[in-house]
Amino acid sequence: MLIDSYAYTNRMHFVHPVIKIIFSLITMLMCFFFNVYGNFAVILFMFFTIVFKAGIPIKTYVKFMFLPFSFLILGLITIMITPLINNINYVFAFEIFGMKMGITYSGTVMALKLFFRALAVVSCLYFLIFTTPIVDIINILSKIRIPAIFIELFQLVYRFIFVLLKEVEEIYISQDARLGYKNIKNAFRSSGLLVYSLFTKSYRYSQDLYIALESRLYTGDINVLSNEQKFSFSNIFFFIIIDLMLITITIFTRRWLQ
Amino acid sequence: MGIILEAVNVYFDYVDSTKALNNANIRIEKGENIAVLGPNGAGKTTLFLHFNGILKPKSGKILYNGKEISYSRKEIVKLRKNIGIVFQNPDVQLFSATVYQEISFGPINLGYKEEVVREKVDNIMEKLNISYLKDKPTHFLSYGQKKIVSIADILVMEPEVIILDEPTAYLDIEHTDELIKLLDSLKEEGKTIIVSTHDVDFAFQWADYIYVMKGGKIIKEGIPDEIFIKDSKVEGLKKPLLLEIYEILKEKNILYKDEIPKNIEELKKAIK
């Protein structure tokens, strides 16, 4: 839950969440229209914003950027390798089950475009989750009138993920201390028991929670107040500048692609 | 001052037919510090849940301010506002993502306007010295901080009676001292405080009146001196350390006062 703690402690957590959400979404949307250079610029700009403005350690951010790589590489390989039908100019070819397969030039370009686009979109998303606490996002969701039931679920799930994670950790340690994970056989048994006890515990938790809520006059709706946040124009200005620069880069690099 | 809460011949059993309360009788004097002692499973928590109308007795009655509870919607609201329970495990009680939201839940349910709620939440956070936790997510708090927030949850609703279910369990010394100070200041405001605890030393020093529960009923009650002075092995109660030392010193005849000391300082003064 590293990301979560950064979301609360980074240097941009005080920026109004609406600005951050809008910036992140708009930039994400623009990634679909940008060319390779534009998307590359998005990755760079997001990197600088997250690392230098928000103060997330470079190591952590790079580690998180590598997370989607395994999915990405697998996806790209399937795009790059196509059946060669008319013997168009290929870079590399091989035969499998009597069919000629290979990597074509256009396939490679396509894969490259996709690679940068995917990473650009991911870095926009990272910007949002590294700088914006989930609490703020929940807040905004309730302000744009998402049905209360979803927001309450979101809220409770978010809260109890941490309660249950702590529980998992404690059960795991107590099992491990009694050699519960000594070998594969033990490990299977122990993890089964862990899930079982977690399930019964979360059931008990939910009942106790209900009693605790009822004691404070819960009637079916969870209504809470959140802190007020202020818009800051310098922040809005900062994000607008970034997006304008990205657009300019895409326009000026258009001729290089022809 | 008058009786604020009373349980008369209350019986209650859970679905699995364990007898949780078996003819429980208790009278809570207004403005007093009440300690409820007793082993695990003695029915303390069950009794507390009767006091704010979460549980309904199978037979017997609960009286609030001398009137029997009717369990109408309106009365339940009044009851839950005025009788606040701080649960033993703060992780169960705290459901919100941030401390501020958490504390605002009760007063919003009471139907106050937004500005009033904000004022109340700010006031209570200041009073308990937790204003610095305002924007913190609940899951980043230490156990002691969670405990204080769970107390703020209840105090913000301004109840007449505050029930704390084993408040000192797992709590470190610093937070325990803070808690006791807080309880003292609440007493000065005229609140009635009920605490269930296993800590006989704490109960002896703090309480005005003690109830001992076992097997779903009150087996002993009285002021602390009476409760502990006689041989209390029968009820499974340990004697408070202070009292034990006092008795030894008295036997050896090195005390010149006969009064039972309430704390170390009083004992010191009593020694020749």
How many β-strand runs of chain A?
3
CATH topology (fold) name of the largest domain in chain B: Rossmann fold
pLDDT averaged over residues of chain B: 88
Order of helices and strands of chain B: EEEHEEHEHHHHEHEHEEHHH
| Helical residue percent band of chain B | 25-40%
Shape of chain A: globular
Quantity of strands of chain B, as a count? 10
Outline the biggest β-sheet of chain A. Answer: 3 strands, antiparallel
Describe this structure in words.
The complex is a heterodimer of chains A (258) and B (272). A three-stranded antiparallel beta sheet of chain A has the order 1-3-2. Chain A has 258 residues and is mainly alpha-helical. Chain A has ten helices and three strands. Helix content of chain A is 70%, strand content 6%. In chain A, helix 2 runs parallel beside helix 10 and helix 8 packs across helix 9 (184-215). Chain A is globular, with a radius of gyration of 24 Å. Chain A has two domains: 2-132 and 229-257, no CATH class; 145-215, no CATH class. Chain B has 272 residues and is of the alpha/beta class. Chain B folds into two domains: 3-236, 3-Layer(aba) Sandwich (Rossmann fold), CATH 3.40.50.300; 240-272, no CATH class. Helix content of chain B is 39%, strand content 22%. In chain B, strands 6-7-8-3-9-10 form a six-stranded mixed beta sheet, sandwiched between helices. Chain B has a four-stranded antiparallel beta sheet with strand order 2-1-4-5, with helices on one face. In chain B, helix 4 packs parallel to helix 6 (143-155). The longest helix of chain B is centred in the middle third of the chain and has 16 residues, at 173-188. Chain B is globular and about 65 Å long. The two termini of chain B are 38 Å apart.
